[in-house]
Design goal:
heterodimer; A: alpha/beta; Rossmann fold; 3 domains; six-stranded mixed sheet; globular; B: 364 residues; mainly alpha; two-stranded antiparallel sheet; 4 strands; 68% helix
Amino acid sequence: MAQQTVVKIENLTFTYERGPLALEDVNFEVSKGEILGILGSNGAGKTTLCFHLNGIIPTVFSGVEKGRIEIHGLDPWETPIIELSQIASMVLQDPETQFTTTNVESELQFGPCNLGIDRDEIIRRVEWAAKVCGIIGLEERKPKELSGGQKQRVALAAGLTMLPKVLILDEPTSQLDPVGTTEVFDVIHELSKKEEMTILIASHKTEEVARLASKILVLHEGKVAAIGTPKEVFSQNELLSNIGVNPPAVSTLASKLAEKIPGFKQKYEQSGGIPLTVDETYSLLSGLIEQGFLKVEWKNLPPPPKYSSDLVLEVDNVTFEYPARVPVTALKNISLSIHRGEFVAIIGQNGSGKTTLVKHFLGLLEATEGVVRVEGEDVSELTTGSIAKSVSLILQNPDYQLFSISVEKELEFGLRNLGLPEKEIKERVNSALKEVDLEDVRDTFPFRLSFGDRRKVAAAAGIAMDPDIFILDEPTTAQDYRGRHVLCQIASRMRDQGKTVVMISHDMDLVAQYADRLIIMTDAEIVADGPKREIFEMHDIMEKAFLKPPQISQLSQKMKDYGILETLVTIDEFVDCLELGGA
Amino acid sequence: MAFEYVKKDTVLDRMNPLVKLLYMSLALLLVVQCTSISHISILLIWIAVATAWWKVGQVELKSLGFLLKLLSFLFIFLFLVQGLTYRFGDPTVFIKLFDFPILDDLGHVILNYGEITVGGLMYGFLIMLRVIAVVIVVPIFTMTSPMNKISGSLAKMKVPQKIIFMFITAMRFVPLVQESMDNIIEAQKTRGFDIDAASMFQKLRRAYVPIITPLLLLMFRRAMDLEVAINARAFGAKKDRTEMEDNSFKARDYIAIFFIFALFAFEMYLLYFEPTSITWVYLTLFVSASTTAVGTFLVTAGVFVFIQQLNQFILSIPVLDVIGGFLNQNILLGYGGIVAVILIVFIVYKLVRRRMKKKKRKKA
């Protein structure tokens, strides 16, 4: 039986009113029960495409459209959004902003109530959706009493109560930790399998998308750059990395090996295409080694970088409770010391206390018990403004701090607070703008910039303060693959200038590549602290902290018996270890 | 937030929000009619009953304290302005702050607007009670009514859907604004912006631009996202939304309505039909009796003499006698020195606490 086509897009071109060309000549089809992954860097047109499918364009945003869209036989430009909303449900990137009511239960009821559906039917739907998304028992909660993963699942359930045929997800997991991400993707998987729902996911998490999607569409500047099965798409490594899409690490590994070792490409193509998961790669590589096609040549790793014995940050037995009706312990007996010149990453799931901890470094929060010392001085005796001279915190959301009329003025603000002379302010602004490569937009109103650039402005504002300690809170939030690396590279350069860098993240690939020392936090406590290779070997602790080592580390640990002696963290390290075998 | 709904499962929780709305509107209706000093007694009854409602609804008295703290500046202002200008009540001068006499044709002083009179203070007290009488019933509505119940009962009253949604969104945005504001203040602090250390004048002059601007921009963006979210879920599709809550009036609602009207009618009776203003008489009797009792006790216990001697002693201290002497007039006669000392201690305490807080750090 031929599969029913649910979504059909032909030659779609779209220009926003008074805006740029957002989509150009997009063609694709999706059949019932399929999962389509939509990849692309920020600004590639993913969101615009999603908005087309459920009628947000043209109802909310208008523009000029050419081409044809058909979704369940309906044309979104002819059909009122009310009808469309029952066919296609959309879950947005930020779960916080889509909460329309004040608690979970009424949130789930909101959609069907608008449709005037029978009361008992609504209760049935809500129960079903809550069960599918695993949020039973949370009905009375308010949005702020939910974790990030829970919020996102509530948003998903709220979409499901409309009983859609097509589910559209716009970066549903960009703010979630690895386990929260897996939770959401598992729900999605189940929906497509059991309910035969057609699902379109725009995402940056290529590893998860590769695992689930049956088809992948890559957008670049509004055009289709590639389309096909995950294996087909991810084998075009060069193309993808040119347009800022990051294939799963093991796929990149395979592509790099293919470049280095002639004949490797043919080998993996024979075995069914480019590997996408750790297990696939393991069986491919181990097979080839046993055949003698490949051999492992262990090269000793460079020793971890040395840093001075000078302590810049000391946290001594710090406990912190958020005052509330029922006080919440956010930090429990935290002790830690950081030396000058270290690159430390604090990792852990959402809500484990990472951000709370770094806020103590600046005196934004005051420890209930214990002492925090910055360069030997007790933070509780200082004003935050004066600590800011030596500690800079780059927040997740730059919109909390940008307010000036131009980028230049924005950078000057902090420096004027420090009371520096005009000449020095000018010099510092110039060098900071150069550092983040934003010299061209120095006179632009910051809100006109893209999110990625706004974060860079915020980072530049931090750099201009010339801090000794540079703290980066979650470089991955709403950033594409390229954007997060830009931020980390800035941090890396700061470290090379002798500054101390602390980064909070749950992107393990990023952490593996840039940091030297990892600190794992779970439930307000530090459960592990050490060099990154050692930490990635602590499987039990990682699992308890709801984290997963990066694909490359998992693979290298599996291949210990084949002569990979230590845990590897980057793709290049791995490529270096493999050579063409004798046979 | 202090005024959000928290589920408590009390009678008030289960009561129809319309009943509480009615209570609020009657409170407004009452206070606009209480305009003379003798109505203080009537307002006190209303406030006492409202406090009983708080008890029934298990609303924390803490949030009342928070409310009063918010309003305290207003109250001080009321007392000052009314004390200085209201001239229809008891003309006894409480304290003379400065001279601002109004003369008649013959050059006699008729009024002096530099004096705080007892009647003025009482009138200030009346206005304060009027404010409290309304404010005290608001949390009874907001803190015991879940949002979906409010929207349901408003829909039942045929309030248009769009207006209800606007109302709910406003209620939802209040904690959101608060949260964003805290985040913004934190963000600006990390850039060397010490709003806590700034003086009042500095704050007014430049401090709020870096906080209000991002807040407004952020809220606009939020509003845009919300528009997408509600459209995606068919808001406004049908004229009659399905209402999930049972909004019919129950026995307890009828009882509450009866009680509210009875209370209101009783107050109206006291206000217009009770010729002797009996409650006012009782109130004055009670106040004078209790002050006399306390006074007699103090005199017999010798405390009174002690206080007066202490006051004399304070006034004999060279610097203090300037301020003490100023306060040592009329009703404060005999206590001016002590009042002055208390005032000075309070101001010094405030200043010292401010200085003690945090020092600035110098970068090496």
